[in-house]
Every structure is written in C-alpha cells, then in structure tokens.
Amino acid sequence: MSGLPNCPKCNSEYTYEDGTMFVCPECAHEWSKDAAGDADDEDVKVVRDAVGNVLQDGDTVTVIKDLKVKGSSTVVKVGTKVKNIRLVDGDHDIDCKVPGIGPMGLKSQFVKKAD
C-alpha cells in the first residue's frame, strides 16, 4: 500500500506522483495534489449570511435591506422575517416563501439569521 489516493475517475489503485500532480496509468486522468485533499469537501457547500453565520435548511432569516422584486413594483422591506428557508445551488442560494409576496429566491448576502 503506497498511501497514494485512488483515481477519482476510475478508482484505480495504481496512481503515481508526477511533480505536483497525481496520474492514473489506467485512464490517464491527472489531478493536482491540492485537489486530492479537497475531494471530500466538494460535496459540502457552506452558505453564510451577511454577518457570517452558517445557514441551514429550515432556518429563519431576516432581510437586512429593502429588495425590489424583479418584474413587479413590490418591495421586500427591511426586517421582514422569512421562515423555513431552503438552500439551493445558484446565484440566489435561498428558496423561500416571503410573507405577503410569495415564493422567491434570495441571495444570502442580504439576509441575517434570526435569533
């Protein structure tokens, strides 16, 4: 056992080092040594609010800035509490139902986790 990681593409155990890269002789896949340590961390995306608190599904957040609703004349007012958020991938990383407006996407930089 050489202590080198298996190939992330074909799971071959015959990987070898080539400078700052790992190489798989079976499928010719190459990856950096830095990426090898972060392979387990790729699945976990941490979403933080405007002040740095970690957000999770089901949290309650407060809007910290008046937000114009695109395609409408409505505004989400500062201080609006949004319950039961859902984290998603993308530019607007929070899916939620804003009271009085309905379902919409928010950016985490404009909310603060409620106490």
UniProtKB/TrEMBL annotation:
A UniProt-annotated Pfam family: YjdM
Protein YjdM N-terminal domain boundaries: 4-32
Protein YjdM C-terminal domain segment(s): 47-114
InterPro entries noted in UniProt: YjdM, YjdM_C, YjdM_N
UniProt record similarity statement: Belongs to the YjdM family.
PANTHER family reported for this sequence: PROTEIN YJDM, PROTEIN YJDM-RELATED
Protein name: Protein YjdM
Annotated source species: Ferrimonas balearica (strain DSM 9799 / CCM 4581 / KCTC 23876 / PAT)
Phylogenetic placement of the source organism: Bacteria, Pseudomonadati, Pseudomonadota, Gammaproteobacteria, Alteromonadales
